[in-house]
Structure to design on (388 residues):
C-alpha cells in the first residue's frame, strides 16, 4: 500500500489508548483492496461483546462487500457527498436497531446500537481497517431493499476498508482529510461535576 | 486491594483486544475507594473523542462522587436491584443525550451518546476502573434534580469505581458475578452477509 503516513492522531487533554486517539473517520478508501476477512471478523466479534441493557443485544447488521448487489443497494441509499466516496470502501455495513421486541419498545436500542458500532470501530482500527459512519442515507430504501421487519430501524451506514492514497484523491477529499480534528472542551460537556 | 483474581474475560469466536474482552459490568464496587481522578479524566477524554454525526457531539454528562448530594440524587433515582449495589461506586454518572438543538430533533443523539459511553468504558477498564451501565432509573427525577433543559434526555446511569471484593459481597451479587457471560452468535446478528 502506497499510503503516506498521515498522522490524524487526536491531540488529547489527558492520555487515552492509542487505538482511541488514532481512530478517525477517513473518506479516502482504497478502491482496489478487498476486505481482510479476519480483521472484519474480529471487529464483528468486538461489537458482539459490547454491553447492552439487560444483555438484550437490540441491534443487527447488514454487511455488504464491494461488487455485490447488496453493496450497490447500500451505496444507492447514501445522500449527498457520502455517495461520492463511500463506494470505494470494500465493505458497507448498516447498523440496525431493534426498536421493538414482541411489540414493546426497546428504549435503549439506539444507544446500544451506538455502543456496538463504537466497539466495531475500535477493533477495526486496531486491525488496520478504517471506518466512517454516516447518518445521511435513505432509511426507507434500506428497509425495502433488505426486506427489514417493522421491528428494525436502520440507524447508520458504516464504510469499512483500507485507507486509500490521499495524494491521488480528489481535492475536496484531501482538504477534508487534512482539516483539524476538533472536539469541544470536556468542561463544556460536564453539566454537573461534583 | 484484596480482590481475588476473578476472570471474567469473554470467550470469543475471533481475537479481540484484551481491553474489550476483559471489560464486563460488575455489580461489586469497593465502597471505601475514592475515584482515581487521573483515570477518570482519561476515560472522559476517551468519550470526548468518540465519533458523532457531523461531529455534532450531542451528549452531555453528569458526574457525581460518593459523599456528595449529587451522588445521593443519582442513587435515589435508581430502580429495583440497581439501588442495592450501585451506591458503593465512587462515581455515579448520567449520560445525557441532546435530543433537540435549536428546536430541531437530533436523530443520532441516542446512538452517539452510546458511542461516547462505550469509549468511556473501554478507557476506564484500561485504567483499572470498573463500570456498569443502568437503564433502570427515573429520568424525570434526574431532570428535576439537576434542572436539565428540555433539550436534554438522561439515557443511562453508569457506576464507575474500583472492583470490590467478591468474597465479602452479598450472596446475590456473588451469584450474578459468577454467571456465565453470554452473547448470541454473530451469525444471528447478521441480517445480510454478502
Amino acid at each position: 500500500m502506497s499510503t503516506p503516513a498521515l498522522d490524524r492522531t487526536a491531540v488529547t487533554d489527558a492520555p487515552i489508548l492509542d487505538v482511541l486517539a488514532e481512530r478517525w473517520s477517513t473518506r479516502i478508501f482504497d478502491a482496489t483492496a478487498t476486505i481482510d476477512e479476519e480483521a472484519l471478523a474480529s471487529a464483528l466479534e468486538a461489537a458482539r461483546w459490547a454491553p447492552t441493557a439487560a444483555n438484550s443485544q437490540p441491534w443487527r447488521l447488514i454487511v455488504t462487500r464491494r461488487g455485490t448487489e447488496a453493496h450497490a443497494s447500500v451505496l444507492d441509499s447514501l445522500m449527498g457527498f457520502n455517495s461520492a466516496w463511500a463506494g470505494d470502501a470494500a465493505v458497507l455495513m448498516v447498523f440496525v436497531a431493534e426498536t421493538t421486541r414482541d411489540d414493546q419498545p426497546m428504549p435503549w436500542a439506539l444507544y446500544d446500537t451506538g455502543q456496538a458500532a463504537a466497539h466495531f470501530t475500535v477493533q477495526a482500527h486496531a486491525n488496520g481497517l478504517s471506518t466512517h459512519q454516516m447518518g445521511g442515507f435513505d432509511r426507507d430504501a434500506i428497509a425495502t431493499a433488505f426486506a427489514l421487519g417493522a421491528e428494525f430501524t436502520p440507524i447508520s451506514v458504516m464504510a469499512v476498508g483500507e485507507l486509500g492514497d490521499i495524494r491521488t484523491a480528489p481535492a475536496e477529499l484531501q482538504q477534508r482529510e487534512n482539516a483539524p480534528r476538533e472536539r469541544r472542551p470536556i468542561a463544556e460537556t460536564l453539566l454537573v461535576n461534583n
User: Anything to note?
Assistant: The longest helix of chain B spans residues 109-126. Chain B has one domain: 33-178. The radius of gyration of chain B is 17 Å.
